[in-house]
Design goal:
Layout: H1 2-15, H2 22-30, E1 40-41, E2 48-49, H3 59-78, H4 84-92
Antiparallel strand pairs: 1-2
Protein backbone atom coordinates (compact mmCIF):
# COMPACT_ATOMS: atom_id res chain seq x y z
CA UNK A 1 0.00 0.00 0.00
CA UNK A 2 2.83 2.44 0.81
CA UNK A 3 4.50 1.75 -2.52
CA UNK A 4 1.33 2.53 -4.45
CA UNK A 5 0.82 5.75 -2.51
CA UNK A 6 4.42 6.86 -3.09
CA UNK A 7 4.27 6.04 -6.79
CA UNK A 8 1.00 7.93 -7.20
CA UNK A 9 2.23 11.01 -5.32
CA UNK A 10 5.53 10.98 -7.23
CA UNK A 11 3.72 10.73 -10.57
CA UNK A 12 1.38 13.60 -9.71
CA UNK A 13 4.28 15.68 -8.38
CA UNK A 14 6.25 15.01 -11.54
CA UNK A 15 3.35 15.95 -13.80
CA UNK A 16 2.73 19.16 -11.87
CA UNK A 17 6.42 20.10 -12.07
CA UNK A 18 7.14 19.95 -8.35
CA UNK A 19 10.02 17.50 -8.88
CA UNK A 20 11.73 19.46 -11.65
CA UNK A 21 14.22 21.38 -9.53
CA UNK A 22 17.63 22.88 -10.24
CA UNK A 23 19.24 20.05 -8.28
CA UNK A 24 17.57 17.47 -10.52
CA UNK A 25 18.74 19.34 -13.62
CA UNK A 26 22.32 19.57 -12.28
CA UNK A 27 22.33 15.84 -11.49
CA UNK A 28 21.14 15.04 -15.03
CA UNK A 29 23.91 17.20 -16.43
CA UNK A 30 26.58 15.55 -14.25
CA UNK A 31 25.37 12.08 -15.25
CA UNK A 32 25.19 13.21 -18.90
CA UNK A 33 21.57 12.13 -19.34
CA UNK A 34 18.57 14.02 -20.74
CA UNK A 35 20.63 16.66 -22.58
CA UNK A 36 17.49 18.60 -23.53
CA UNK A 37 16.98 19.67 -19.88
CA UNK A 38 20.57 20.65 -19.02
CA UNK A 39 20.94 24.10 -17.50
CA UNK A 40 22.13 26.80 -19.89
CA UNK A 41 24.50 29.41 -18.38
CA UNK A 42 23.66 33.09 -18.86
CA UNK A 43 26.08 35.55 -20.42
CA UNK A 44 27.62 36.40 -17.05
CA UNK A 45 28.17 32.71 -16.23
CA UNK A 46 26.84 33.07 -12.69
CA UNK A 47 23.18 32.25 -13.30
CA UNK A 48 21.48 29.57 -15.34
CA UNK A 49 18.38 29.31 -17.49
CA UNK A 50 16.16 26.28 -17.09
CA UNK A 51 15.02 25.20 -20.58
CA UNK A 52 11.44 24.09 -21.06
CA UNK A 53 11.15 20.31 -20.81
CA UNK A 54 8.82 18.49 -23.20
CA UNK A 55 7.00 16.84 -20.29
CA UNK A 56 6.11 20.14 -18.59
CA UNK A 57 2.40 20.77 -18.46
CA UNK A 58 0.90 24.17 -19.15
CA UNK A 59 -1.23 25.81 -16.49
CA UNK A 60 -4.41 24.71 -18.29
CA UNK A 61 -3.15 21.12 -18.55
CA UNK A 62 -2.30 21.09 -14.84
CA UNK A 63 -5.79 22.32 -13.97
CA UNK A 64 -7.32 19.67 -16.22
CA UNK A 65 -5.25 16.96 -14.50
CA UNK A 66 -6.29 18.18 -11.05
CA UNK A 67 -9.95 18.33 -12.11
CA UNK A 68 -9.74 14.76 -13.41
CA UNK A 69 -8.20 13.56 -10.15
CA UNK A 70 -10.85 15.44 -8.22
CA UNK A 71 -13.76 14.04 -10.25
CA UNK A 72 -12.54 10.46 -10.75
CA UNK A 73 -10.40 9.53 -7.77
CA UNK A 74 -11.76 11.56 -4.87
CA UNK A 75 -15.31 10.14 -5.08
CA UNK A 76 -13.85 6.64 -4.71
CA UNK A 77 -11.78 7.90 -1.79
CA UNK A 78 -14.79 9.46 -0.09
CA UNK A 79 -16.80 6.26 -0.43
CA UNK A 80 -14.08 4.38 1.38
CA UNK A 81 -12.99 2.31 -1.61
CA UNK A 82 -9.34 3.23 -1.18
CA UNK A 83 -7.09 2.24 1.72
CA UNK A 84 -6.69 4.80 4.50
CA UNK A 85 -3.20 6.10 3.55
CA UNK A 86 -3.88 6.99 -0.10
CA UNK A 87 -7.36 8.21 0.88
CA UNK A 88 -5.92 10.81 3.29
CA UNK A 89 -3.19 11.84 0.82
CA UNK A 90 -5.69 12.42 -1.98
CA UNK A 91 -8.05 14.41 0.22
CA UNK A 92 -5.13 16.68 1.17
CA UNK A 93 -4.49 17.38 -2.51
Amino acid sequence: MHIEKNVALTAVGFLLGELDTLAVRKDAQQENVLPHIHLVPDDNGKTFQKPHAHYDLSKEEKLKLLRTIHLEVLPASRRGLLPKGPQVALIRL
